[in-house]
Amino acid sequence: MRATVDGMRSAEQILREARTIAVVGASRDRTKTAHAVPQQIQRHGWRIVPVNPYADEIFGERAYRTLADIPFPVDLVNVFRPSADATAVVKEALAIGAPAIWLQQDIFSPEGRALAEAAGVDYVEDTCIAVVRAVHAISGPRTP
């Protein structure tokens, strides 16, 4: 598991402190990891905001076409897009003032990491958010 940028919050800290998570690349297809993982995180108490230009609703939440379309702040941008798309998503996350960016397992962006580091934004890559949640037995803010 990769750690965050030096001096920044750990993956565990980021998840513990997040309330609202925008999921870029959230899928409507229940057989895909980009559906199952965010749905599990939602079930454990976080508000999931799907970002998918081809869907109106996922997980019972309104889906937004882009991060810029979300009309409220998010605590974390979780990325389920190929590594080739990750830098562009990092740039969008920085543009909306997201305090943390998390690239899922097998997703890397050296340029995105450098951009996040320069902006002082917490950054995780190549790490599954559901695994971190399970390993540390973290519950979201909506879980009693």
Describe the structure.
Helix 4 links the parallel strand 6 and strand 7. Helix 3 runs parallel beside helix 4. By secondary structure, this protein is α/β, with parallel strands linked by helices. It has a five-stranded parallel sheet with strand order 2-1-5-6-7, sandwiched between helices. Strands 3-4 form a two-stranded antiparallel sheet. It has a single domain, classed as NAD(P)-binding Rossmann-like Domain (Rossmann fold), CATH 3.40.50.720.
Largest sheet: 5 strands, parallel
How many DSSP E strands? 7
Give helix % range: 25-40%
How large is the share of residues in beta strands? 15-25%
Number of helices: 5
Write down the overall mean pLDDT. Answer: 94
Please name the fourth-level CATH homologous superfamily: NAD(P)-binding Rossmann-like Domain
The helix/strand class is alpha/beta
CA-CA gap between termini: 29 Å
What Rg, in angstroms, do the CA atoms define? 14 Å
Topology:
Blueprint: H1 11-17, E1 20-24, H2 33-43, E2 47-51, E3 57-58, E4 61-62, E5 76-79, H3 83-95, E6 100-103, H4 110-119, E7 122-124, H5 129-135
Parallel strand pairs: 1-2, 1-5, 5-6, 6-7
Antiparallel strand pairs: 3-4
Summarize the structure.
It comes from Dactylosporangium salmoneum. The chain has one domain: 3-Layer(aba) Sandwich (Rossmann fold). It is 33% helix and 17% strand.
Considering the chains and any ligands shown, give keywords for the structure.
33% helix, two-stranded antiparallel ribbon, single chain, 17% strand, NAD(P)-bd_dom_sf, Rossmann fold, CoA-binding protein, 7 strands, alpha/beta, CoA-bd, 5-stranded parallel sheet, 144 residues, globular
